[in-house]
Write a structure and sequence with these properties.
Helix content: 55-70%
Strand content: under 5%
Radius of gyration: 20 Å
Oligomer: single chain
Structural class: mainly alpha
Number of helices: 9
Length: about 170
């Protein structure tokens, strides 16, 4: 007869249970509150974000921000921008399908698909470059000024993601 192991409730056992697993490479939880420690950088980022989104459709802005954040594994930004997308009128289904937007192409417009492809190409620059076909596809759906702002938006969310991931910002907490 075997018995189920009992869970120890001693402080030492609790600490061991909460410790990272053997081989874990990082801990979760916030590291520093970078916006408070570098307020001039934070303000500059806010200004860049505001300028980049100018004249872009608010729903498209949030789709781009969610997709880049998914690729960058930024839980804070995914949480924030899914909430912002809902406020902008985005549907739950399109938010849920965004991680597989190519397979769910019928749920997104040609313009949105072009923007998402450009988002992936710019976000994943470490895998090469932005292919001409991806750039040309986006250029077919956006005039030059709008395309420039879209590129700035994608670049900006990637910067936000890097702040969020490197400082381990906690989802749901500003």
């Amino acid at each position: 007869m075997t018995t189920a192991p009992t869970k120890s409730t001693t402080p030492t056992a609790q600490a061991a249970e909460q410790a990272p697993a053997a081989g874990a490479t990082h801990r979760h939880g916030p590291r520093v509150r970078w916006a408070q420690l570098a307020p001039e950088v934070y303000q500059a980022m806010l200004a860049l974000d505001t300028a980049a989104r100018q004249d872009l459709d608010p729903t498209l802005v949030e789709l781009v921000k969610i997709r880049a954040s998914q690729l960058n594994h930024c839980a804070f930004c995914i949480d924030k921008h899914t909430k912002d997308a809902r406020k902008a009128g985005e549907t739950e289904q399109r938010i849920y399908l965004l991680d597989a937007w190519e397979e769910a192409a019928a749920h997104y417009t040609d313009q949105e698909r072009a923007a998402l492809a450009l988002t992936e190409a710019i976000t994943l620059l470490t895998e090469g470059f932005v292919p001409d076909a991806v750039y040309d596809r986006a250029a077919a759906h956006f005039d030059d000024a709008t395309l420039a702002r879209l590129i700035a938006l994608i670049t900006t969310i990637n910067a936000w993601n890097r702040f969020g991931v490197s400082t381990r910002m906690t989802p749901g907490r500003a």
